[in-house]
């Protein structure tokens, strides 16, 4: 699941323009996007900022973006749910058991549940969903690695699901949880779309599902509207409606929060967070970061069959050059200057939100900021400097010039990319910053048409999905289909350990195997972890219950999930809340703010401040 952090504050005139637009009222918003209207005509509405990644597709079999997965977690059921203890708890499955040989898992499925169209929700739906992912390459696009060890999935009766595995699989209760892994879909709806699954958009509203919410509408790159499921088995939402509004620029979201037109933002940047800490009517909180931000290097893009693809610079196939680049990056400066200290220097591939999987290099093995050593490595490898200071690749006589792909709709890249370009120039590597939309960048990623890319991911409490991104099985086929790779990494030793860690039921033993995998990734220098950012949130003081769990001594909450946050959100006593009669106005205003923010971003980008998400 791709995480795209929210951009930093734009210049003061941009924020002023956004605020001015907010004051225009309905008449001034005639050119804004058409408003959405919940299916009900009364009740209270919770308005949240959608994850800034947005929605790549409403098809849960092919989606990657966090914005999509937040919606899937809200509208589709899963076998289990991650509780406040970070462990799987009952959801569709009320209980589960494992055979003595660790190869067969039996889940007891709740009786009497129905999909939103009234059809029975049974174990057969779960079996059909998992079997489709196992047997259909397109269906396995997003989550195929999670079922790669399955040998069979059956539903002998409506309340029993049986999963048999090829090898023991210790993480099986994590493979179907809200937001983080596989959603269960209704067979009677989806079976007619299998033949054209790759192109199916799943945009017939209201979408048939079962969860705390039902998706009633969606406007591309603008918003999603949802209605509460008042009979939800884990407890009804406290709000009647939910609007997830996309803001490609978080200053627009902050303006909406300040003016009372938005209730919740997860992932505000450090500058905004500091200003909101003292804002009237706003509550700010921190939670443990469950993701990383870093730089991917293309080590030579290949398909599963070993066929070379893409336009990546062949110089990056040299591990010496990749190590020199790693040593040229001053990660602490990025932590201090870019995220204002709200986070930590990145090292291991798994985030600090899940401490049992945190890995750090041993003493003497750290890749610390050392440009002198980086230059020494390149000198010794024969990369001589030209008259302009740029080194020459000894294998083809060409200057070392690398493209740095960044997201054009997120200003974290704007802050990071000049640093990276300057640091690489200091070791004799020219960098061309190449802003792309999120869609274009992710499209190029799978084709291998890049040298270096900024990227970020989030991960749930089980490490298999995140580690599986680096599996050989996630490479595309020769036609460019399938795959979920982020750096075309494929290593036999790593592959063996990936399978091994799933078979280990002793936590300490499994953690040791995962540590070995993280060291392999660290030494390969294909994913350079810049930092792990603390999640910063801002909530209207009219809403309570958004943060779950207990904060630590530093007042930092455990990692949060949109599933629980939106389900537990409660209107403050005495607050009438926003009625659905105002929903059209809210969406229209927010859509207009998005347009203004995006326009200003383009201006900044053209002036050289390329931005990222």
TrEMBL record:
Q: Which residues form a coiled coil?
A: none
Cellular location(s): Cell membrane
Q: Which InterPro entries does its entry note?
A: Peptide/Ni-bd, SBP_5, SBP_5_CS, SBP_5_dom
Gene3D superfamilies xrefs: Dipeptide-binding Protein, Domain 3, Periplasmic binding protein-like II
Q: How does it sit in the membrane?
A: Lipid-anchor
Locate the Solute-binding protein family domain: which residues?
Answer: 88-467
- Bilayer-crossing residues are 583-603
The organism's superkingdom is given as: Bacteria
Which GO cellular component terms are attached?
ATP-binding cassette (ABC) transporter complex; periplasmic space
**Chief site of localization:** membrane
Q: Does the keyword Transmembrane helix apply?
A: yes
Check the record and name the CDD domains matching this protein.
PBP2_NikA_DppA_OppA_like (cd00995)
List the Gene Ontology MF annotations in alphabetical order.
peptide transmembrane transporter activity
Give the keywords, sorted. Membrane, Signal, Transmembrane, Transmembrane helix, Transport
Biological process GO terms, please? peptide transport
- Which positions carry the signal peptide feature in this UniProt record? 1-35
Task: Establish whether keyword Isomerase is in the entry.
Answer: no
What family is this protein classified in?
Belongs to the bacterial solute-binding protein 5 family.
Q: What is this protein called?
A: Peptide/nickel transport system substrate-binding protein
* Source species: Actinacidiphila yanglinensis
């Amino acid at each position: 699941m791709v995480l795209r952090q929210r951009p930093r504050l734009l210049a003061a005139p941009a924020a002023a323009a956004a605020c001015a637009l907010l004051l225009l009222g309905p008449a001034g918003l005639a050119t804004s996007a058409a408003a959405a209207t919940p299916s009900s005509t009364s009740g209270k509405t919770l308005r949240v900022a959608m994850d800034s990644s947005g929605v790549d597709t409403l098809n849960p079999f092919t989606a990657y973006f966090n914005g999509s997965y937040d919606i899937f977690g809200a509208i589709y059921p899963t076998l289990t749910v991650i509780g406040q203890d970070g462990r799987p708890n009952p959801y569709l499955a009320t209980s589960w058991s494992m055979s003595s040989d660790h190869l067969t898992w039996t889940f007891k499925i709740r009786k009497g549940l129905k999909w939103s169209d009234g059809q029975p929700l049974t174990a057969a739906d779960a079996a059909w969903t998992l079997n489709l992912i196992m047997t259909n390459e397109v269906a396995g696009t997003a989550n195929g690695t999670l079922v790669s060890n399955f040998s069979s999935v059956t539903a002998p009766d409506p309340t029993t699901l049986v999963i048999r595995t090829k090898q023991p699989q210790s993480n099986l209760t994590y493979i179907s949880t809200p937001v983080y892994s596989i959603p269960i879909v209704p067979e009677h709806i989806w079976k007619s779309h299998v033949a054209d699954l790759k192109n199916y958009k799943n945009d017939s509203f209201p979408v048939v599902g079962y969860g705390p919410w039902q998706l009633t509408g969606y406007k591309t790159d603008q918003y999603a509207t949802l209605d509460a499921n008042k009979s939800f088995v884990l407890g009804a939402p406290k709000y009647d409606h939910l609007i997830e509004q996309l803001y490609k620029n978080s200053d627009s979201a902050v303006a909406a929060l300040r003016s009372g037109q938005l209730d919740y933002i997860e992932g505000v940047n450090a500058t905004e967070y500091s200003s909101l800490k003292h804002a009237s009517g706003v509550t700010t909180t921190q939670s443990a970061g469950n993701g990383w931000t870093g730089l991917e290097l293309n080590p030579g893009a290949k398909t599963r069959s070993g066929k070379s693809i893409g336009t990546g610079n062949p110089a990056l196939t040299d591990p010496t050059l990749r190590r020199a680049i790693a040593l040229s990056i001053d990660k602490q400066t990025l932590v201090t200057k870019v995220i204002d200290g709200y986070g930590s220097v990145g090292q291991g591939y798994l985030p600090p939100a899940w401490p049992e999987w945190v890995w750090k290099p041993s003493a003497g093995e750290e890749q610390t900021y050392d440009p002198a050593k980086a230059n020494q490595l390149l000198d010794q490898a024969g990369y001589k400097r030209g008259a302009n200071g740029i080194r020459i690749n000894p294998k083809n006589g060409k200057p070392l010039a690398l493209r740095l792909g960044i997201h054009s709709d997120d200003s974290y890249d704007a802050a990071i990319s000049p640093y990276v370009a300057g640091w690489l120039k200091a070791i004799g590597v020219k960098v061309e910053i190449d802003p792309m939309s999120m869609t274009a960048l992710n499209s190029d990623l799978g084709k291998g048409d890049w040298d270096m890319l900024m990227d970020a991911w989030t991960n749930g409490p089980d490490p298999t999905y995140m580690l599986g991104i680096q599996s050989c099985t996630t490479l595309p086929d020769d036609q460019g289909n399938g795959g979920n790779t982020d750096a075309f990494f494929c290593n036999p030793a790593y592959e063996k350990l990936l399978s091994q860690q799933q078979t280990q039921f002793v936590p300490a033993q499994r953690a040791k195997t995962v540590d070995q995998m993280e060291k392999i990734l660290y030494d390969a220098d294909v994913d350079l972890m810049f930092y792990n950012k603390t999640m910063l949130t801002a909530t209207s003081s009219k809403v309570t219950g958004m943060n779950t769990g207990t904060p630590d001594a530093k007042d930092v909450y455990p990692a949060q999930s949109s599933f629980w946050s939106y389900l537990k959100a409660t209107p403050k006593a005495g607050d009438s809340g926003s009625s659905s009669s105002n929903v059209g106005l809210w969406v229209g205003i927010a859509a207009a703010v998005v347009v203004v923010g995006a326009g200003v971003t383009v201006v900044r980008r053209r002036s050289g401040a390329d931005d990222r998400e």
